[in-house]
Every structure is written in structure tokens, then in C-alpha cells.
């Protein structure tokens, strides 16, 4: 083969090698532009709350993630509870609980209300022990599944959470205020057991700011202090 032909082939191969990746850059630019268009179209059709959440993330991704509790345990489109959207998020929690298999049996014993402190969720016991084994800090299987559903929702919201344990006025046998296991220990132990389950299913450690054990000092039914309906776990989502 003539030398001139060999030189020409080598030069052409060099050109091909140098220009071979140019189309990839152009294609990547096209895909990026297309994705940006889809994001803009999605944002235009999203609610004001979602637009605010997306804006907050892009302004301060790190701080916004901490506020939302959307680290390793959190995900999804959960939004912080505020005075403006507390009623909407009350409905969101109720909808999440309805998906729990045991909800129909428990619905009369779950109260969700809006108070000055925030959103209060009361899990009210029965004589047989619906959420916790009677006289014990151990949750029932159904109670744990319901707390797990709550944990997933509260973890996505990212708000501060207060957990309270309450008992009725019936004392433990062979117990005394100075020694033994009393309603004070039981109420605190149940609140902490609830805290551990909530953490396991999505609530960030920094979200829980108080764990309270009230024993029988804040009865739901003051006229019937020994009624099982006074036993409850209260979860307060602060706004």
C-alpha cells in the first residue's frame, strides 16, 4: 500500500476517534432540557403547598431535609404540620390509619383532635387491652402495627413530637408509692415503648422532644377514675 494511502487512513482514524463522543454530549443536553421541561410542567400543575416544599428544598437542601425528617428513615411527599394545614394533615393521618388492617376494630378508640399545642392523637384502651397488654408496657401486635403506620406518617412530616402515657386510677397489687411497680412506671414505660416503635418506623430521633408519664393525674373520665378508657397513649404533633 502506498505511504500516502497509509498516512491518509491513519489521519482519518484519528479524526473519528476525536469526534466519536460529541453526539453523547449533545444527547445529554437534550435529555436534561427535556427533563427540565417535565419538571416545570409538573410544578405548574402542583398545589401551592408542594411548590413551597420544592422551593424550600432547592433554597436549602440540607436544612430542609433535617426540618422534614427526610433523612435515611423518611421519604415521600410528607409536609410539615402548620397552623394553616393542620386540618388537612389530620385527614392524611386518618387516611393512613384506615389502611391498617385492624383499623375497623380500633376506630372507636382512636381520637384525633386539634389543640393549642398541635395535632393530638389519642389511642384509648379497652378493658381487654387493645393497644397494650393489660397491666404491661408490652404493645399488642395490633397496637404495634398501628403505631408503625403512625411512625411512617409522622416521620415524613418532620414536626416535633410529644408522647404521653396515661393510666386509670386502679393501683397495682402489692405496690406502694414508695416502692414497687406503680401506674407512674407503667405510664412512662408505655410512652417509651411507643417512642421506640415510632423511631423504628420513621420518626427521627430529634423529632421526639418529650416523653411524659402522667399515671392517673390527667384522667379522660374524671367521673369514673377506674374506667379502662382513662388508659391511653397520646401523641402530640407540635405546630
Description:
- The protein is of the alpha+beta class and 239 residues long.
- The protein is 47% helix and 13% strand.
- It contains 8 helices and 5 strands, in the order ααααααββαβαββ.
- Strands 1-2-5-3-4 form a 5-stranded mixed sheet.
- α3 packs across α4 (61-68) and α7 (141-157) crosses α8 (183-200).
- Residues 62-77 have low confidence and may be disordered.
| Order of adjacent strands in the largest pleated sheet | 1-2-5-3-4
The main β sheet shows up as:
5 strands, mixed
Total number of strands? 5
Q: What fraction, in percent, of the residue positions are helical?
A: 40-55%
pLDDT averaged residue by residue = 82
Estimated structural class: alpha+beta
The residue ranges in which pLDDT falls below 50 over 5 or more consecutive positions are 62-77
Individual helix count: 8
Q: What's the end-to-end separation, in Å?
A: 84 Å
Order of helices and strands: HHHHHHEEHEHEE
Strand-residue proportion? 5-15%
What's the gyration radius in Å?
Answer: 28 Å
What is the approximate shape?
elongated
Amino acid at each position: 500500500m502506498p505511504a500516502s494511502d497509509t498516512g491518509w487512513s491513519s489521519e482519518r482514524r484519528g479524526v473519528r476517534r476525536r469526534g466519536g463522543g460529541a453526539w453523547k454530549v449533545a444527547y445529554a443536553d437534550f435529555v436534561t432540557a427535556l427533563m427540565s421541561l417535565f419538571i416545570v410542567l409538573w410544578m405548574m400543575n402542583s398545589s401551592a403547598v408542594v411548590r413551597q416544599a420544592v422551593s424550600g428544598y432547592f433554597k436549602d437542601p440540607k436544612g430542609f431535609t433535617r426540618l422534614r425528617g427526610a433523612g435515611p428513615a423518611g421519604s415521600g411527599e410528607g409536609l410539615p404540620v402548620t397552623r394553616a394545614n393542620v386540618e388537612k394533615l389530620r385527614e392524611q393521618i386518618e387516611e393512613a390509619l384506615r389502611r391498617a388492617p385492624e383499623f375497623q376494630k380500633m376506630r372507636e378508640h382512636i381520637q384525633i383532635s386539634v389543640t393549642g399545642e398541635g395535632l393530638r392523637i389519642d389511642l384509648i384502651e379497652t378493658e381487654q387491652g387493645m393497644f397494650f397488654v393489660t397491666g404491661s408496657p408490652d404493645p399488642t401486635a395490633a397496637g404495634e402495627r398501628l403505631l408503625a403506620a403512625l411512625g411512617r406518617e409522622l416521620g415524613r412530616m418532620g414536626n416535633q413530637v410529644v408522647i404521653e402515657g396515661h393510666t386509670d386510677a386502679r393501683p397495682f397489687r402489692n405496690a406502694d408509692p414508695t416502692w414497687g411497680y406503680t401506674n407512674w412506671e407503667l405510664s412512662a414505660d408505655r410512652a417509651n415503648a411507643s417512642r421506640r416503635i415510632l423511631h423504628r418506623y420513621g420518626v427521627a430521633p430529634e423529632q421526639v422532644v418529650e416523653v411524659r408519664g402522667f399515671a392517673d393525674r390527667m384522667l379522660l373520665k374524671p367521673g369514673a377514675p377506674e374506667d379502662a378508657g382513662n388508659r391511653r397513649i397520646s401523641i402530640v404533633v407540635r405546630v
